Amino acid sequence: MMEQGTATVVKHTGSHYLLSVLPEWAPFPAVIRGKLRLAGTKTTNPIAVGDRVEFEGETITKILPRKNYIIRRSTNLSRESHIIAANLDRVFLIVTIILPETKLAFVDRFLVTCEAYGIRPVILVNKIDLYTEPVLQEQLADFKALYRNAGYEVLEISARKGTGIAQVRALCRDGLTLFSGASGVGKSSLLKALDPTLNPKIGEISLSHLQGKHTTTFYEMHPLAGGGFVIDTPGIRGFGLVDIQPEELSTYFPEMLRVMDNCRFMPCTHTHEPGCAVKAALEAGTIAPERYNSYLGMLEEEKKYR
Ligand code: GDP
Ligand code: ZN
After folding, report:
1. What residues contact residue 258 under an 8 Å CB cut-off, 6+ apart?
2. 32-40 — which CB contacts under 8 Å span 24+ positions?
3. Nearest ligand to the C-alpha atom of residue 202
């Protein structure tokens, strides 16, 4: 057993944490010393899975600065927030066209959160084995075009048939990947397809937490047999846009960021201002109305919290 050093938090169980000196997988328990908090954070949990910490024996003595993290409001109107995970190399947003249908507003909100925290999102459209009817194929094509044009990587996969799994496995090989998406999109199936040796309990936590309103949700990291580490998140109902100023919201839409330097006014909310490059792009069809409408919806919502 190591006396002291630097390790990564791989699990939080409520009373204690499990640490491992990655890439070695040998978790050991540790507790937090006193009121240890990372300066400037106001969250319900001081340490999240993925955090790099210093430890002495079984005590965590220091939290190292995070390169990024994902956060959400504990409840919709609360100002308190909850860190879901820290130090992520990428986030997979798993979506489905049907069973269940994924709402674009949810996707856009999620992507904005990733942008705001500087984490690369990759969209995985799962269950492509189901989209055989022409109308569904069309919906799939529209979805892909919408997000690829916005600047995102979109992969088509089938956890059930194994389609695209090798590609996903290769993406996961380096660093830490967060798996997220609504309940039922196939997160646990995908994890099992990637690595059949993963603890079968993965994904089961989702169910018990979906009901609970005040989520004392515990996240956990798992090593993948093919390399890399993953964090599975219980079906996320929505991310709060924590600490995003209305003026900066459009910078988290890559297709808006590309053109907004040409807006006549600075800052520009891209709503009523004359000479707005975003609205020009919208009219020209290079910015999708679906994305622009999501932007307007988020802008409105942000105002409510201020
Ligand atoms: P989770 O809630 O996101 O973890 O989703 P699950 O992995 O539990 O999957 C939900 C349901 O979708 C299960 O019945 C799976 O068998 C099914 N499912 C998962 N992946 C696929 C897929 O690629 N194709 C099809 N047709 N069904 C899938
Ligand atoms: Zn503008």
Report:
1. 151
2. 32/59, 32/60, 33/59, 33/60, 33/61, 36/60, 36/61, 36/62, 36/63, 37/63, 38/63, 38/65, 38/66
3. 1
The response to whether residue 234 sits with its C-beta less than 6 Å from ligand 1 reads no
| Averaged pLDDT for residues 255-260 | 97
Top-level class of domain 85-232: alpha beta
Q: Whose CA is nearest to atom 18 of ligand 1?
A: 186
Please tell me the predicted confidence (pLDDT) of residue 83. Answer: 81
pLDDT computed for residue 25 by the predictor: 95
Pairwise pLDDT comparison (215 vs 25), residue with the higher score? 25
Over residues 117-176, the pLDDT tens digits come to: 899 999 999 999 999 999 999 999 999 999 999 999 999 999 999 999 999 999 999 999
Q: Which CATH architecture has domain 246-305?
A: Orthogonal Bundle (1.10)
pTM of the model: 0.88
Which residues make Cβ contacts (< 8 Å) with residue 26, sequence separation at least 6? 20
Q: How far is the CA of 293 from the centre of ligand 2 (A)?
A: 14
Q: Over 70: is that where the pLDDT of 69 sits?
A: yes
Entry field: residues in the chain: 306
Calculate how far, in angstroms, residue 295's C-alpha sits from the geometric centre of ligand 1: 30
Query: Ligand 1 within 6 A of 12 CB?
Result: no
Query: Cβ distance 56 to 33 under 8 Å?
Result: no
Of the candidate CATH numbers 3.40.605.10, 3.20.20.150, 1.20.1050.10, 2.40.50.140, the domain formed by 4-64 belongs to 2.40.50.140
Q: Give the mutation target among 92, 101, 140, 189 for probing the ligand 1 site: most ligand atoms within 8 A of CB.
A: 189
Which segment of 95-104, 115-124, 134-143, 204-213 scores lowest on mean pLDDT? 204-213
